[in-house]
Design a protein that fits this description.
This protein is mostly beta strands and 186 residues long. It is 6% helix and 42% strand.
């Protein structure tokens, strides 16, 4: 079931799956059904296309469904599948914040920098958080520092160094455990 709500928050229509079809209920200001029309799924799809309706809000898709945006999404839009690039490492040492989940930290200058993963007790990144680092040609080393949590790279743990032309991906796999992978790491 889906509800349409106007700008004032009043319900204006409801769509309800009904066996072999879809019921479209126009709803009065008092919240009662003013009229009902039953459509097959194909009729409903044709009606949506004909009305040039724009859907907003939450949608649920079955396995294998594809989403094609009407235009190229901005890197800050919901559903963007890229990793927005930040150049904050060129300005100084970095300790990522929750707002940095899924982002790439890009380092190009000749100054050595620290990338410090905060303790889970101070910044509780959700499990599955991904943080990427790129140390470009000419960039000085970036130290990937872990505070009180655990950073695993292969079978070893602890602080690591990312050399020029290196890339690293950090993935949070448990509340206090991060995994590191990439190239140019020592």
């Amino acid at each position: 079931m889906a509800l349409n709500v106007d700008a004032a928050g009043a319900m204006t229509a409801a769509i309800v799956a009904a066996g072999d079809g879809i019921l479209w209920n126009d709803v009065s200001a008092a919240g009662t059904t003013a009229s009902t029309k039953k459509m097959t799924p194909a009729e409903f799809q044709a009606w949506v296309v004909a009305m040039a309706l724009t859907w907003t809000g939450k949608a649920t898709f079955s396995a294998g469904a594809a989403i094609t945006p009407a235009s190229t999404p901005a890197t800050t839009e919901v559903g963007y599948l890229g990793s927005p690039v930040l150049t904050t490492l060129d300005s100084g040492n970095v300790a990522p914040a929750l707002a940095d989940c899924g982002k790439t930290f890009y380092h190009t200058d000749g100054n050595a920098r620290n990338f410090t993963i905060p303790a889970n007790g101070s910044v509780a990144f959700p499990l599955g958080t991904v943080l990427c680092l790129v140390n470009e040609n000419g960039g000085a080393n970036v130290s990937i520092i872990i505070t009180t949590d655990t950073l695993r790279w292969g079978s070893s743990t602890g602080t690591r160094t990312l050399a020029a032309n290196g890339t690293a991906t950090l993935i949070k796999v448990a509340s206090t455990v991060w995994r590191l992978t990439g190239d140019g790491i020592t």
